Amino acid sequence: MGLFNRLIAKVRGTSSASVLDWNEIEVELLASDLGPALVTELLAAAKKMRGDDAEAAIKEILVSKLSSKDRTISSGLPTNVIMVVGVNGTGKTTSVAKLATLLHSNSDSVTLAAADTFRAAAVDQLTTWGERIGVEVIAGKEGAEPASVAFDSVKRAVEIGSKYLIVDTAGRLHNKSDLMDELGKVKRVIEKGAPLAEVLLVIDGTTGQNGLAQAKIFSEAVEVTGLIVTKLDGSARGGVALAIESALDIPIKFIGTGESAGDFAAFEPDSYIEGLLA
């Protein structure tokens, strides 16, 4: 990404003031979706730096902005129920399938719940993925209550001793309160059948500060434990990951970088920071 290379050059005194002045650097960092608060803090710190230690000093600041919470997926329960939330269009259902593929490839038993019942295409998509992966998918009738599908899925996953149950949920944002009420209901129903191990929020990495706003809303409604950031493909706008972790202290657990099942992996903070500084 090299997001901070111009800032480092400026601090070292090796950049041209006529081209790379502080205002231009600020505009560039804001365009990367870091957010105004974090950009202001970074620039204030950078202006106090001098010389060749700039890169190490900036790296230390960036690392301090990342969450220190556990990034591994919960695995300590007999059946680890993972509720996946997010607005439509973020890649939520695809991320559910990719996560199932990753866990199944590690020889873990996985069951999927197609509880995004308001969108028939999501149920069909998840069913197709389940057949491809070789895992059971629990789906209700068209238009079924999402909470009902979630309840049946928990019952089935516990019954067969599945290590993971991944629940896809509705993502309609036509009315924020309606969606949050629905997700809260699904969460409560799940917890009647088994403890909820994780609530993972899927964020589209290209949506910038809107992604941060979504993370705040979902966190207030369903206590998000981790993030899946999609479309984090190494572009200059990859700063959103740092912005979200800095603002909310919610760890990014997985990233999606493409459409295929293999374009999904655990988030590696060190590699991410090195990419920003490269």
Explain what the structure shows.
- There is one protein chain.
- This protein is of the alpha/beta class and 278 residues long.
- The chain folds into two domains: 61 residues, no CATH class; 198 residues, 3-Layer(aba) Sandwich (Rossmann fold).
- It is 48% helix and 15% strand.
- The protein is built from eleven helices and eight strands.
- It has an eight-stranded mixed beta sheet with strand order 3-2-4-1-5-6-7-8, sandwiched between helices.
- α2 packs antiparallel against α3.
- The chain is elongated and about 65 Å long.
- Keywords: Cell membrane, Cytoplasm, GTP-binding, Hydrolase, Membrane, Nucleotide-binding, Receptor.
- It is found in: Cell membrane.
- It is a peripheral membrane protein.
- It holds the Pfam family SRP54.
The low-confidence parts are: none
Most strands sheet: 8 strands, mixed
CATH architecture of the largest domain: 3-Layer(aba) Sandwich
CATH class of the largest domain: Alpha Beta
What is the count of β-strands? Answer: 8
Instruction: Spell the H/E element sequence.
Output: HHHHEHEHEHEHEHEHEEH
Note the overall shape.
elongated
Spatial ordering of strands, largest sheet? 3-2-4-1-5-6-7-8
Distance between the termini: 7 Å
Query: With helices defined by DSSP (H or I, 4 residues minimum), what is the helix count?
Result: 11
| Secondary structure category | alpha/beta
Could you tell me the CATH topology label of the largest domain.
Rossmann fold
Number of structural units classed as domains:
2
What's the pLDDT, averaged over the residues?
Answer: 86
